Amino acid sequence: MTYCINFDKNEFISALFAWFQANKRDLPWRKTYSPYHVWISEMMLQQTQMERGVQYFNRWMQEFNSPADVADAPLEKILQLWEGLGYYSRAKNIYQSAQIIRDRYNGEIPCDEEKIKALAGIGDYTLCAIMGIAFEKDYATVDANVERVFARLFNCTESNLKKTLRPLVQELLPCGKARIYNQALMELGAIVCKKNPQCGLCPLTGFCESKKLGLEKERPLPKEKKQNIPVLASFCIIRNSQNQELIRQRKSQKLWNGMWEYIGIDSIVIDNTDENIDTANLAYKHEPVLQEHTARQSLVIELGRLFSLSRKEREEIAQKISPHCLRISSSYTNHKLTACFFTLNLDRKLEEKMQIPEHALWTDKAEEFAMPSHHRKAHQKLNKEKLPQKAEQGRLL
Question: 248 phi and psi, to 5 degrees?
């Protein structure tokens, strides 16, 4: 279906710009609009709420004032500052791109479409944001907020909103005004034309086809929800006689590659003889106490394998692992993770029998290493409260 602009463009832009000037939020990257600030903010705000993005942006800029500062830092520091934002490939892409910017472009992001697009992690959206907002070139930026605004403006019922609406967003862009235009549309979608639209506050109701038809709450058409896949994981905070913790670095793994974690298993599949039952979901049909039992038993087996323990040594380990766990729940894309963290305090005799696995080390400063958020939460929690070692002491949830 073809959608056409059937209203006065100048009136539309005047209403939008006047609203933005009166209502725009005070965001740190809007103080300078430097290409570096715009780039980092856009990378951070992908899959991230604004308030959280601002906090991370300010902390980042305190450490890295320029692309060269990023390029000169160790990757471990980059990942540590990114910790909690998720989608860590974004941080690695920033790191890789910063090195290119330092080495090829004298530390300045070039005002060149092909050169920017060639940087790691730069797609069409980020390219348009940098070119339009930072360099004020005539590039329209279309994010989820802009899609929602235009889907309502034109009563769009298409499934591929970006492809359908991008030409309209570009056509309405006034020459030389990309910075204010892009931000005004994104701001409007973020604080007024939300999933539950606040039409009484909107400056564009007179131009909105969906509002005229009384369909504003039905546009855009809802997307099919992805199935939330449950995952059960089990980890062990192992402490030696010097009260150091054993952590290992993830290597050659898709998720959290290069980050540090406690020893354990990412995903536990429950033994099951009925082939018609989804084993990935089976653990979540059990009571929490059975989940915990399964996690503990699986952890004992994994530790025995990892440390090449004899049966007797494995039994000894099983006796020493805390009977109860700290449970951390986290959501990652379409996965719901329940991670069970147990503790194991080694005496010197048992410590000498256990060989440290590859890419692992003892430390009493785990807070200085970049960790996935569920491991960081466990570390912080267990440094405030000791995990109970006896059943009668109760359970931490």
Answer: -135, 155
The position carrying tokens 């054993």 is 246
**What's the alpha-carbon Rg for the chain, to the nearest Å?**
26
Joined together, the tokens standing for residue 273 give 């003889």
Catalytic residue among 11, 42, 113, 171, which?
42
| 349 backbone dihedrals φ, ψ, rounded to 5° | -65, -45
Q: Which of 218, 246, 263 is the last residue of a domain?
A: 218
Q: How far, in Å, CA of 116 to CA of 119, rounded? A: 5
User: In angstroms, rounded to a whole number, what is the distance separating the alpha carbons of residues 301 and 299?
Assistant: 5
Q: How many domains does the chain have?
A: 2
CA 279 to CA 286: how far, in whole Å? 12
Task: Give strand pairing partners of 342.
Answer: 236
User: Closest by alpha carbon to 389, among 307, 326, 301?
Assistant: 326
Domain of 313, CATH number, reads 3.90.79.10
Contact 210, 221 (CB under 8 A): no
pTM for the predicted model, two decimal places? 0.85
Reported as type and span, the H/E element at residue 69 is helix 67-72
The amino acid occupying position 24 is K
Q: By the 8 A CB rule, do 55 and 220 touch?
A: no
Q: Tell me whether residue 42 is one of the annotated catalytic residues.
A: yes
Binned average pLDDT, 10 residues per bin, the chain of 397 residues: 92 98 97 97 94 97 98 95 92 97 98 98 97 98 97 94 95 98 98 97 98 96 84 94 94 88 85 41 59 90 89 90 92 86 90 85 94 94 60 28
